[in-house]
Amino acid sequence: MKATLIKIALLGSVAAIAGCEGTDSYSSFTREAGALVGGGDFGNATMNNTMILSGEKTYVTNLANRFAEEVPSTINFEFNSARIDPDAAAILRRQADWIRQFPEVRFRVYGHTDAVGSNQYNYRLGKRRADAVVRFLSQHGISRSRLEAVVSQGETQPLVMTEARERRNRRTVTEVTGFVRRHPSVLDGKYAQIVYRDYVESAVVATTLTGIEGSVTGASSD
């Protein structure tokens, strides 16, 4: 009886090992020591830790959240059009005003379409819409170099799942993507000053000079 149980246990072990050989999972029984090699993400953990310790990752996330909360990040388009209408222009002016507050920050514009038309045509249309937004922002004081990339998602990321015309799918989305390289305040690690600049400035009190003839704020009179 005992011999039979031993044979069953051995057979079970062999079957388990054989099963492991048919998968990509790591097995110390079938592979040499150290055989588990990363799948292309080597160095990501170190980079992530560096960004967390320096504060860059946290502050970029905070800025992205602030932008999405304080400014509409999306505009919409008419069917088969990349023209920026008055409603869209009003939103983009608000985006430009917000972006000008943070000269250290880069942005990316994503273009989208609805599902009407071919994939190739919609990809090009999404790119035209993103290009139109970049031109508009550039004309309103935003350096083209700060608009990190113009990306077309075409019809691949609809908000509304439909094959019909859908205005909500015909859109561009502006997002915070990171900091401008070699910017002085970024090199100095002053991320908190970037993110909370308006908060810090709100604490600055105007200088008041009091004299015999009364008080003057900011400067004396002749």
Automatic annotation (TrEMBL):
Which Pfam families does its entry note?
Answer: OmpA (PF00691)
Q: Which CDD domains match?
A: OmpA_C-like
Signal sequence segment: 1-18
User: Where is this protein localized, as stated in its record?
Assistant: Cell outer membrane
Origin superkingdom: Bacteria
Gene3D superfamilies given in the database record: OmpA-like domain
Q: Where is the OmpA-like domain?
A: 64-180
PANTHER family xref list:
LIPOPROTEIN YIAD-RELATED (PTHR30329:SF21), STATOR ELEMENT OF FLAGELLAR MOTOR COMPLEX (PTHR30329)
Spell out the protein name for this chain.
OmpA family protein
Tell me, in one coarse class, where this protein mainly resides. membrane
Arranged from A to Z, the UniProt key words for this protein are: Cell outer membrane, Membrane, Signal
